[in-house]
Design brief:
9 helices; single chain; 312 residues; 10 strands
């Protein structure tokens, strides 16, 4: 039993929501799935409750929840589009879905993910939807890096960051204000619903908004460029996205003019987080962390490619 008031309240909230859905709930103990500064998540039976980060704007979250409710074949829809208040945090409830198995990388659903992103990018964005928060998250990671203390890799990461256009550093408006984007895509943002073998759906609307759709392809693109994602997986992902008429890259030919800036930004974000965690723990970087820091060093010697109109 947790003594954290937020986590205790969140598990109780998840339990109450599960019981309201199913009178004959097969009860077990509610479990905490995540406890991070930006989110806490608890599950009871087939229901998940999420406490969003402190300071989340209720109006913006409401618009994002409405998008998820409107696109049930792409995004996991919330159980209730109106957040509750719990210890000053906004809380939403969701059906449970089976996540990607991190211990079976060969089974990662790259084609399904790419198809979902293409469908999301082709869906109309509703009026009032705020910009996607990808660049802002990258900027926060860099700010934390600056505050983390000295590290041999910091200078390379900051040089790579400084070479990016202002919009990718959250210092200027996004050059695309019409395309619907997830804002923080990675494999942890996929679940099968209904569990355990329903269709794949995207989760987590906190960063959803309008923006540059290539940002949603940038993490796998960066992993591929850093040697952390096998070429076959990257090419399957890219081919599936193009087959679904995704607008982030050209239908054929070289995709990198569209992907280069977002991929560099996600590489910097990943490297900044890696160094910050390593400094806090007093440890050396592991192999994958060193790979993204090394990529930042290489990026400092080659200027980024720009999509026309996206260079500032």
């Amino acid at each position: 039993m947790t003594t954290n008031p937020l986590l205790s309240g969140l598990t109780a909230h998840a339990t109450a929501a599960a019981h309201s859905r199913t009178a004959a709930c097969v009860c077990g103990a509610a479990v905490v799935l995540a406890d991070r500064p930006d989110a806490a998540v608890a599950r009871h039976a087939d229901t998940v409750a999420k406490a969003h980060s402190a300071g989340t704007d209720p109006g913006e979250l409401g618009v994002r929840l409405a998008v998820a409710a409107r696109l049930p074949g792409i995004l996991l829809p919330p159980l209730d589009p109106t957040p509750a208040d719990l210890h000053g945090r906004l809380v939403t409830c969701w059906p449970y879905g089976s996540p990607v198995d991190p211990d079976d990388p060969g089974a990662a659903p790259w084609e399904a993910a790419a198809t979902l992103l293409a469908r999301l990018h082709r869906s109309p964005a509703p009026p009032g939807l705020p910009p996607m928060r990808g660049p802002a998250k990258a900027a926060r990671a860099v700010a934390r890096l600056r505050a983390a203390g000295p590290h041999p890799g910091t200078a390379s990461v900051l040089r790579a960051w400084a070479a990016l256009p202002a919009w990718a550093r959250a210092e200027a408006p996004l050059p695309d204000t019409a395309t619907l984007c997830h804002g923080d895509f990675h494999l942890g943002q996929l679940v099968r619903h209904p569990a355990p073998d329903g269709p794949w759906l995207l989760i987590d609307v906190d960063d959803l908004g309008t923006g540059v759709p290539a940002w949603d392809l940038a993490r796998p693109a960066a992993w591929y460029a850093c040697g952390l994602l096998p070429p076959n997986a990257w090419h399957r992902f890219l081919a599936a996205y193009r087959a679904a008429a995704g607008p982030a890259v050209p239908a054929d030919g070289d995709p990198w003019p569209a992907l280069d800036v977002p991929a560099r930004a996600l590489t910097v974000q990943t490297a900044a987080r890696a160094i910050t965690k390593a400094v806090a723990a007093g440890r050396a970087l592991d192999g994958a962390e060193q790979a993204v820091v090394d990529a930042c060093h290489r990026m400092g010697t080659v200027p980024p490619q720009f999509t026309p109109g996206f260079a500032t």
